[in-house]
Amino acid sequence: MSPENSDEVVPLLPENGSPTTSTSEKQPSVSGAVFNVSTSIIGAGIMSIPATFKVLGVAPALILIVLIGVLVDVSVEFMLRFTYAGGSTTYAGLMKESFGRIGSVAVQICVMISTLGCLIIYLIIIGDVLSGDPSGEGSVHLGVLQEWFGVHWWNSRDVAILIIVVFVMLPLVLFRRVESLSMSSAVAVLLAVVFVGICSAMAISAAVQGQSKSIKLLPQLDNQVDFYNLFTAIPVIVTAFTFHFNVHAIGVELGKPAAMASAVHISLVICALIYFCIGLFGYILFGDSIEADLLVNFDHASGSIVGSVLNDIVRLSYAFHLMLVFPLLNFSLRSNIDEFLFPDKSLLAKDTKRFVLLTLVLLAAAYLMAIAIPNIWYFFQFMGSTSAVSLAFIFPGAIALRDIHGISSRKDKIIGATMIVLAVITSTIAISSNIYSIGNSS
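== Amino acid transporter transmembrane domain-containing protein ==
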Protein backbone atom coordinates (compact mmCIF):
# COMPACT_ATOMS: atom_id res chain seq x y z
CA MET A 1 0.00 0.00 0.00
CA SER A 2 1.40 3.35 -0.99
CA PRO A 3 1.35 6.09 1.64
CA GLU A 4 -0.79 9.13 1.05
CA ASN A 5 1.32 11.58 3.03
CA SER A 6 4.84 11.98 4.24
CA ASP A 7 3.95 10.95 7.77
CA GLU A 8 3.21 7.39 6.68
CA VAL A 9 6.59 5.74 6.27
CA VAL A 10 7.53 2.12 5.89
CA PRO A 11 6.25 -0.10 8.69
CA LEU A 12 8.67 -0.66 11.57
CA LEU A 13 10.68 2.41 10.57
CA PRO A 14 10.95 5.77 12.37
CA GLU A 15 11.24 8.83 10.19
CA ASN A 16 14.66 9.61 8.79
CA GLY A 17 16.14 12.65 10.31
CA SER A 18 14.02 12.52 13.42
CA PRO A 19 15.70 13.01 16.79
CA THR A 20 15.08 9.37 17.60
CA THR A 21 16.89 8.26 14.49
CA SER A 22 19.79 10.64 14.85
CA THR A 23 20.52 10.17 18.52
CA SER A 24 19.25 6.92 19.95
CA GLU A 25 19.01 4.72 16.82
CA LYS A 26 21.98 3.29 14.99
CA GLN A 27 22.04 4.57 11.42
CA PRO A 28 21.71 1.80 8.81
CA SER A 29 24.92 1.20 6.87
CA VAL A 30 25.79 -0.17 3.44
CA SER A 31 27.62 -3.09 5.05
CA GLY A 32 24.54 -3.91 7.12
CA ALA A 33 22.41 -3.75 3.97
CA VAL A 34 24.86 -6.08 2.19
CA PHE A 35 24.56 -8.62 5.00
CA ASN A 36 20.77 -8.37 5.06
CA VAL A 37 20.43 -8.66 1.27
CA SER A 38 22.90 -11.56 1.13
CA THR A 39 21.09 -13.34 3.94
CA SER A 40 17.76 -12.79 2.19
CA ILE A 41 19.20 -14.38 -0.96
CA ILE A 42 21.06 -17.33 0.54
CA GLY A 43 18.42 -19.55 2.06
CA ALA A 44 17.19 -23.04 1.30
CA GLY A 45 18.01 -22.57 -2.38
CA ILE A 46 21.70 -23.17 -1.79
CA MET A 47 21.13 -26.84 -0.94
CA SER A 48 19.58 -27.56 -4.36
CA ILE A 49 22.15 -25.70 -6.47
CA PRO A 50 24.48 -28.75 -6.80
CA ALA A 51 21.55 -30.79 -8.16
CA THR A 52 21.10 -28.21 -10.92
CA PHE A 53 24.72 -28.87 -11.96
CA LYS A 54 23.83 -32.56 -12.33
CA VAL A 55 20.86 -31.67 -14.54
CA LEU A 56 22.45 -28.88 -16.58
CA GLY A 57 26.15 -29.66 -16.57
CA VAL A 58 28.82 -27.32 -15.19
CA ALA A 59 29.05 -24.82 -18.07
CA PRO A 60 25.29 -24.19 -18.56
CA ALA A 61 24.79 -24.00 -14.78
CA LEU A 62 27.47 -21.31 -14.47
CA ILE A 63 25.96 -19.36 -17.38
CA LEU A 64 22.49 -19.63 -15.88
CA ILE A 65 23.66 -18.44 -12.45
CA VAL A 66 25.34 -15.40 -14.02
CA LEU A 67 22.38 -14.68 -16.31
CA ILE A 68 19.76 -14.88 -13.56
CA GLY A 69 21.98 -12.80 -11.27
CA VAL A 70 22.23 -10.08 -13.93
CA LEU A 71 18.48 -10.14 -14.59
CA VAL A 72 17.77 -9.95 -10.86
CA ASP A 73 20.05 -6.93 -10.63
CA VAL A 74 18.12 -5.27 -13.47
CA SER A 75 14.73 -6.09 -11.95
CA VAL A 76 15.75 -4.67 -8.56
CA GLU A 77 17.05 -1.54 -10.31
CA PHE A 78 13.60 -1.14 -11.88
CA MET A 79 12.00 -1.48 -8.46
CA LEU A 80 14.32 1.04 -6.81
CA ARG A 81 14.01 3.59 -9.60
CA PHE A 82 10.20 3.56 -9.59
CA THR A 83 10.08 3.47 -5.80
CA TYR A 84 12.07 6.68 -5.43
CA ALA A 85 10.22 8.29 -8.35
CA GLY A 86 6.89 7.72 -6.59
CA GLY A 87 5.68 7.57 -3.04
CA SER A 88 5.61 3.83 -2.35
CA THR A 89 7.47 2.29 0.57
CA THR A 90 6.50 -1.35 -0.01
CA TYR A 91 6.51 -3.73 -2.97
CA ALA A 92 2.72 -3.92 -2.81
CA GLY A 93 2.53 -0.13 -2.79
CA LEU A 94 4.80 0.03 -5.83
CA MET A 95 2.51 -2.32 -7.77
CA LYS A 96 -0.57 -0.43 -6.54
CA GLU A 97 0.77 2.78 -8.09
CA SER A 98 1.01 1.06 -11.48
CA PHE A 99 -1.87 -1.41 -11.46
CA GLY A 100 -4.16 -0.42 -8.60
CA ARG A 101 -5.53 -2.74 -5.95
CA ILE A 102 -5.20 -5.82 -8.18
CA GLY A 103 -1.45 -5.25 -8.48
CA SER A 104 -0.91 -4.84 -4.76
CA VAL A 105 -2.97 -7.93 -3.92
CA ALA A 106 -1.03 -9.99 -6.51
CA VAL A 107 2.27 -9.02 -4.89
CA GLN A 108 1.00 -9.69 -1.38
CA ILE A 109 -0.26 -13.15 -2.31
CA CYS A 110 3.02 -14.05 -4.03
CA VAL A 111 5.07 -12.76 -1.10
CA MET A 112 2.95 -14.69 1.37
CA ILE A 113 3.25 -17.91 -0.65
CA SER A 114 7.01 -17.54 -1.14
CA THR A 115 7.95 -16.48 2.37
CA LEU A 116 5.64 -18.83 4.27
CA GLY A 117 6.69 -21.71 2.02
CA CYS A 118 10.36 -20.96 2.68
CA LEU A 119 9.82 -20.66 6.44
CA ILE A 120 8.17 -24.08 6.50
CA ILE A 121 11.02 -25.54 4.45
CA TYR A 122 13.56 -23.99 6.84
CA LEU A 123 11.93 -25.56 9.90
CA ILE A 124 11.68 -28.95 8.19
CA ILE A 125 15.37 -28.87 7.25
CA ILE A 126 16.38 -27.75 10.75
CA GLY A 127 14.32 -30.58 12.23
CA ASP A 128 15.84 -33.13 9.86
CA VAL A 129 19.37 -31.96 10.67
CA LEU A 130 18.87 -32.03 14.44
CA SER A 131 16.51 -34.98 14.83
CA GLY A 132 16.34 -36.78 11.52
CA ASP A 133 13.38 -37.89 9.50
CA PRO A 134 11.45 -40.77 11.09
CA SER A 135 9.59 -41.35 7.83
CA GLY A 136 12.74 -41.87 5.80
CA GLU A 137 12.33 -44.40 3.02
CA GLY A 138 14.30 -47.61 3.34
CA SER A 139 16.18 -46.64 6.51
CA VAL A 140 15.81 -44.49 9.56
CA HIS A 141 17.56 -41.17 9.17
CA LEU A 142 19.02 -39.97 12.48
CA GLY A 143 19.79 -36.34 13.18
CA VAL A 144 22.90 -34.91 14.80
CA LEU A 145 21.40 -34.82 18.31
CA GLN A 146 20.28 -38.45 18.07
CA GLU A 147 23.67 -39.54 16.75
CA TRP A 148 25.36 -37.82 19.68
CA PHE A 149 22.98 -38.63 22.57
CA GLY A 150 20.81 -41.45 21.34
CA VAL A 151 17.07 -41.35 20.68
CA HIS A 152 15.12 -39.58 23.45
CA TRP A 153 11.84 -37.69 23.68
CA TRP A 154 13.62 -34.36 24.14
CA ASN A 155 15.55 -34.66 20.86
CA SER A 156 12.62 -35.89 18.79
CA ARG A 157 11.83 -33.83 15.71
CA ASP A 158 8.73 -32.13 17.12
CA VAL A 159 10.41 -31.12 20.38
CA ALA A 160 13.68 -30.03 18.77
CA ILE A 161 11.89 -27.73 16.32
CA LEU A 162 9.72 -26.34 19.13
CA ILE A 163 12.80 -25.51 21.22
CA ILE A 164 14.42 -23.73 18.27
CA VAL A 165 11.20 -21.82 17.53
CA VAL A 166 10.77 -20.62 21.13
CA PHE A 167 14.36 -19.88 22.15
CA VAL A 168 15.97 -18.87 18.82
CA MET A 169 13.31 -17.78 16.35
CA LEU A 170 10.96 -15.91 18.69
CA PRO A 171 13.53 -13.43 20.09
CA LEU A 172 14.75 -12.63 16.56
CA VAL A 173 11.33 -12.16 14.96
CA LEU A 174 10.32 -9.72 17.70
CA PHE A 175 12.77 -7.11 16.38
CA ARG A 176 10.84 -4.29 14.73
CA ARG A 177 13.57 -2.99 12.40
CA VAL A 178 15.42 -4.87 9.67
CA GLU A 179 18.66 -3.09 10.60
CA SER A 180 18.47 -4.77 14.02
CA LEU A 181 19.08 -8.06 12.24
CA SER A 182 22.29 -6.95 10.52
CA MET A 183 24.56 -8.72 13.03
CA SER A 184 22.63 -11.98 12.88
CA SER A 185 22.67 -11.65 9.10
CA ALA A 186 26.45 -11.22 9.17
CA VAL A 187 26.75 -14.43 11.18
CA ALA A 188 24.40 -16.17 8.73
CA VAL A 189 26.59 -15.15 5.78
CA LEU A 190 29.67 -16.37 7.68
CA LEU A 191 27.99 -19.74 8.31
CA ALA A 192 27.14 -20.00 4.62
CA VAL A 193 30.81 -19.35 3.80
CA VAL A 194 31.84 -22.03 6.33
CA PHE A 195 29.37 -24.44 4.74
CA VAL A 196 30.73 -23.75 1.26
CA GLY A 197 34.35 -23.76 2.47
CA ILE A 198 34.11 -27.20 4.06
CA CYS A 199 32.32 -28.64 1.02
CA SER A 200 35.02 -27.17 -1.23
CA ALA A 201 37.84 -28.54 0.94
CA MET A 202 36.27 -32.00 1.00
CA ALA A 203 35.83 -31.94 -2.79
CA ILE A 204 39.43 -30.83 -3.39
CA SER A 205 40.70 -33.50 -0.98
CA ALA A 206 38.65 -36.15 -2.79
CA ALA A 207 40.03 -34.97 -6.15
CA VAL A 208 43.63 -35.13 -4.89
CA GLN A 209 43.07 -38.65 -3.57
CA GLY A 210 41.42 -39.71 -6.82
CA GLN A 211 38.06 -40.25 -5.13
CA SER A 212 36.11 -37.48 -6.86
CA LYS A 213 33.11 -38.33 -9.00
CA SER A 214 32.91 -37.83 -12.73
CA ILE A 215 31.07 -34.69 -13.77
CA LYS A 216 29.50 -33.40 -16.98
CA LEU A 217 30.43 -30.06 -18.50
CA LEU A 218 27.33 -30.21 -20.71
CA PRO A 219 23.98 -31.98 -20.23
CA GLN A 220 23.36 -35.36 -21.78
CA LEU A 221 20.17 -35.21 -23.82
CA ASP A 222 19.11 -38.74 -24.71
CA ASN A 223 15.47 -37.95 -25.37
CA GLN A 224 12.83 -35.23 -25.32
CA VAL A 225 12.12 -35.77 -21.63
CA ASP A 226 15.74 -34.99 -20.74
CA PHE A 227 15.45 -31.72 -22.67
CA TYR A 228 12.35 -30.65 -20.76
CA ASN A 229 14.00 -31.63 -17.47
CA LEU A 230 16.57 -28.91 -18.08
CA PHE A 231 13.84 -26.35 -17.40
CA THR A 232 13.19 -27.78 -13.92
CA ALA A 233 16.58 -26.40 -12.82
CA ILE A 234 15.66 -22.83 -13.72
CA PRO A 235 13.02 -22.31 -10.96
CA VAL A 236 15.50 -23.59 -8.36
CA ILE A 237 18.06 -20.94 -9.32
CA VAL A 238 15.38 -18.25 -9.64
CA THR A 239 14.13 -19.04 -6.13
CA ALA A 240 17.71 -19.02 -4.86
CA PHE A 241 18.12 -15.42 -6.09
CA THR A 242 14.69 -14.09 -5.12
CA PHE A 243 14.85 -11.48 -2.34
CA HIS A 244 12.62 -8.80 -3.88
CA PHE A 245 10.16 -8.95 -1.00
CA ASN A 246 12.87 -7.47 1.25
CA VAL A 247 14.09 -4.73 -1.13
CA HIS A 248 11.86 -2.04 0.37
CA ALA A 249 12.30 -3.10 3.99
CA ILE A 250 16.09 -2.83 3.62
CA GLY A 251 16.30 -0.03 1.06
CA VAL A 252 13.93 2.45 2.69
CA GLU A 253 15.70 2.10 6.04
CA LEU A 254 19.02 2.73 4.30
CA GLY A 255 17.46 5.82 2.75
CA LYS A 256 20.01 6.26 -0.05
CA PRO A 257 19.18 4.95 -3.55
CA ALA A 258 22.82 4.77 -4.68
CA ALA A 259 23.85 3.01 -1.46
CA MET A 260 21.10 0.40 -1.82
CA ALA A 261 22.05 -0.20 -5.45
CA SER A 262 25.66 -0.75 -4.39
CA ALA A 263 24.58 -3.12 -1.62
CA VAL A 264 22.55 -5.14 -4.13
CA HIS A 265 25.47 -5.31 -6.62
CA ILE A 266 27.90 -6.51 -3.93
CA SER A 267 25.44 -9.03 -2.52
CA LEU A 268 24.62 -10.54 -5.90
CA VAL A 269 28.32 -11.01 -6.72
CA ILE A 270 28.96 -12.64 -3.33
CA CYS A 271 25.95 -14.93 -3.63
CA ALA A 272 26.71 -15.89 -7.24
CA LEU A 273 30.24 -16.90 -6.20
CA ILE A 274 28.90 -18.90 -3.25
CA TYR A 275 26.33 -20.64 -5.45
CA PHE A 276 28.87 -21.54 -8.10
CA CYS A 277 31.37 -22.87 -5.55
CA ILE A 278 28.83 -25.01 -3.68
CA GLY A 279 27.36 -26.22 -6.97
CA LEU A 280 30.68 -27.17 -8.51
CA PHE A 281 32.35 -28.70 -5.46
CA GLY A 282 29.18 -30.44 -4.32
CA TYR A 283 28.87 -31.98 -7.77
CA ILE A 284 32.54 -33.02 -7.75
CA LEU A 285 32.11 -34.56 -4.30
CA PHE A 286 28.98 -36.63 -5.01
CA GLY A 287 28.58 -36.72 -8.79
CA ASP A 288 25.31 -38.06 -10.19
CA SER A 289 24.38 -39.50 -6.78
CA ILE A 290 23.79 -35.99 -5.46
CA GLU A 291 20.36 -35.44 -3.96
CA ALA A 292 17.99 -32.50 -4.40
CA ASP A 293 18.76 -31.73 -0.75
CA LEU A 294 22.57 -31.67 -0.52
CA LEU A 295 22.48 -32.33 3.23
CA VAL A 296 21.12 -35.82 2.59
CA ASN A 297 24.47 -36.71 1.01
CA PHE A 298 26.25 -35.67 4.22
CA ASP A 299 24.06 -37.93 6.35
CA HIS A 300 25.95 -41.05 5.31
CA ALA A 301 28.43 -42.41 7.82
CA SER A 302 32.05 -41.53 7.16
CA GLY A 303 34.95 -43.94 7.41
CA SER A 304 36.94 -41.66 9.73
CA ILE A 305 36.40 -39.53 12.80
CA VAL A 306 37.52 -36.42 10.92
CA GLY A 307 35.05 -37.16 8.14
CA SER A 308 32.19 -37.63 10.61
CA VAL A 309 33.07 -34.37 12.36
CA LEU A 310 33.14 -32.50 9.06
CA ASN A 311 29.77 -33.98 8.10
CA ASP A 312 28.28 -32.77 11.37
CA ILE A 313 29.81 -29.31 10.98
CA VAL A 314 28.42 -29.02 7.45
CA ARG A 315 24.91 -29.95 8.57
CA LEU A 316 24.94 -27.80 11.70
CA SER A 317 26.40 -24.73 10.00
CA TYR A 318 23.64 -24.89 7.43
CA ALA A 319 20.94 -25.42 10.06
CA PHE A 320 22.19 -22.43 12.08
CA HIS A 321 22.34 -20.40 8.87
CA LEU A 322 18.66 -21.08 8.24
CA MET A 323 17.81 -20.13 11.82
CA LEU A 324 19.28 -16.70 11.17
CA VAL A 325 17.69 -16.32 7.73
CA PHE A 326 14.26 -17.13 9.16
CA PRO A 327 13.65 -13.69 10.79
CA LEU A 328 14.28 -11.76 7.55
CA LEU A 329 11.69 -13.73 5.62
CA ASN A 330 9.30 -13.58 8.55
CA PHE A 331 9.71 -9.79 8.51
CA SER A 332 8.36 -9.56 4.96
CA LEU A 333 5.64 -12.16 5.54
CA ARG A 334 4.37 -10.33 8.61
CA SER A 335 4.35 -6.88 7.01
CA ASN A 336 2.56 -8.11 3.88
CA ILE A 337 -0.10 -10.01 5.81
CA ASP A 338 -0.67 -6.97 8.02
CA GLU A 339 -0.92 -4.71 4.98
CA PHE A 340 -3.31 -7.18 3.33
CA LEU A 341 -5.58 -7.71 6.36
CA PHE A 342 -5.40 -4.27 7.97
CA PRO A 343 -4.79 -1.70 5.20
CA ASP A 344 -6.41 1.11 7.18
CA LYS A 345 -4.81 0.40 10.55
CA SER A 346 -1.93 2.33 12.10
CA LEU A 347 1.66 1.31 11.41
CA LEU A 348 2.44 -2.16 12.72
CA ALA A 349 5.39 -0.93 14.80
CA LYS A 350 3.10 1.44 16.71
CA ASP A 351 0.55 -1.24 17.59
CA THR A 352 2.30 -3.58 20.02
CA LYS A 353 -0.71 -5.83 20.53
CA ARG A 354 -1.22 -6.40 16.79
CA PHE A 355 2.51 -6.81 16.20
CA VAL A 356 2.98 -9.45 18.90
CA LEU A 357 -0.24 -11.31 18.07
CA LEU A 358 0.55 -11.49 14.35
CA THR A 359 4.12 -12.58 15.09
CA LEU A 360 3.01 -15.40 17.39
CA VAL A 361 0.30 -16.61 15.01
CA LEU A 362 2.69 -16.78 12.04
CA LEU A 363 5.38 -18.53 14.07
CA ALA A 364 2.88 -21.08 15.38
CA ALA A 365 1.45 -21.66 11.90
CA ALA A 366 4.90 -22.26 10.41
CA TYR A 367 5.75 -24.70 13.21
CA LEU A 368 2.50 -26.68 12.90
CA MET A 369 2.79 -26.96 9.11
CA ALA A 370 6.45 -28.00 9.35
CA ILE A 371 5.38 -30.81 11.67
CA ALA A 372 2.38 -31.83 9.55
CA ILE A 373 3.99 -31.74 6.09
CA PRO A 374 6.45 -34.62 5.58
CA ASN A 375 7.88 -33.58 2.21
CA ILE A 376 7.44 -30.30 0.34
CA TRP A 377 10.19 -30.44 -2.27
CA TYR A 378 7.72 -30.53 -5.15
CA PHE A 379 6.04 -27.52 -3.57
CA PHE A 380 9.45 -25.81 -3.47
CA GLN A 381 9.86 -26.37 -7.23
CA PHE A 382 6.37 -25.09 -8.02
CA MET A 383 7.00 -22.05 -5.84
CA GLY A 384 10.01 -21.21 -7.99
CA SER A 385 7.87 -21.49 -11.12
CA THR A 386 5.04 -19.31 -9.84
CA SER A 387 5.34 -16.85 -6.95
CA ALA A 388 9.14 -16.47 -6.99
CA VAL A 389 9.40 -15.86 -10.73
CA SER A 390 6.53 -13.37 -10.53
CA LEU A 391 8.22 -11.38 -7.76
CA ALA A 392 11.65 -11.51 -9.39
CA PHE A 393 10.85 -10.82 -13.05
CA ILE A 394 7.21 -10.55 -14.10
CA PHE A 395 6.14 -7.77 -11.72
CA PRO A 396 9.28 -5.59 -12.10
CA GLY A 397 9.10 -6.00 -15.89
CA ALA A 398 5.43 -5.02 -15.86
CA ILE A 399 6.21 -1.92 -13.78
CA ALA A 400 8.84 -0.82 -16.32
CA LEU A 401 6.40 -1.39 -19.21
CA ARG A 402 3.57 0.47 -17.46
CA ASP A 403 5.94 3.39 -16.72
CA ILE A 404 3.50 5.71 -14.92
CA HIS A 405 6.34 8.17 -14.14
CA GLY A 406 7.68 8.34 -17.70
CA ILE A 407 11.20 7.26 -16.70
CA SER A 408 11.59 4.01 -18.68
CA SER A 409 13.78 4.17 -21.75
CA ARG A 410 13.09 2.07 -24.82
CA LYS A 411 15.86 -0.26 -23.69
CA ASP A 412 14.18 -0.64 -20.29
CA LYS A 413 10.89 -1.60 -21.90
CA ILE A 414 12.56 -4.14 -24.19
CA ILE A 415 14.36 -5.68 -21.22
CA GLY A 416 11.15 -5.69 -19.16
CA ALA A 417 9.17 -7.37 -21.95
CA THR A 418 11.95 -9.91 -22.49
CA MET A 419 12.04 -10.80 -18.79
CA ILE A 420 8.29 -11.38 -18.74
CA VAL A 421 8.28 -13.52 -21.89
CA LEU A 422 11.23 -15.67 -20.76
CA ALA A 423 9.75 -16.06 -17.28
CA VAL A 424 6.38 -17.19 -18.60
CA ILE A 425 7.84 -19.63 -21.14
CA THR A 426 10.37 -21.27 -18.83
CA SER A 427 7.90 -21.45 -15.92
CA THR A 428 5.25 -23.06 -18.09
CA ILE A 429 7.66 -25.70 -19.35
CA ALA A 430 9.04 -26.30 -15.83
CA ILE A 431 5.54 -26.74 -14.36
CA SER A 432 4.58 -29.15 -17.17
CA SER A 433 7.76 -31.14 -16.64
CA ASN A 434 7.18 -31.33 -12.88
CA ILE A 435 3.59 -32.48 -13.37
CA TYR A 436 4.84 -35.13 -15.78
CA SER A 437 7.48 -36.29 -13.25
CA ILE A 438 4.94 -36.46 -10.44
CA GLY A 439 2.57 -38.44 -12.66
CA ASN A 440 5.27 -40.97 -13.52
CA SER A 441 6.39 -41.37 -9.92
CA SER A 442 2.88 -41.97 -8.60
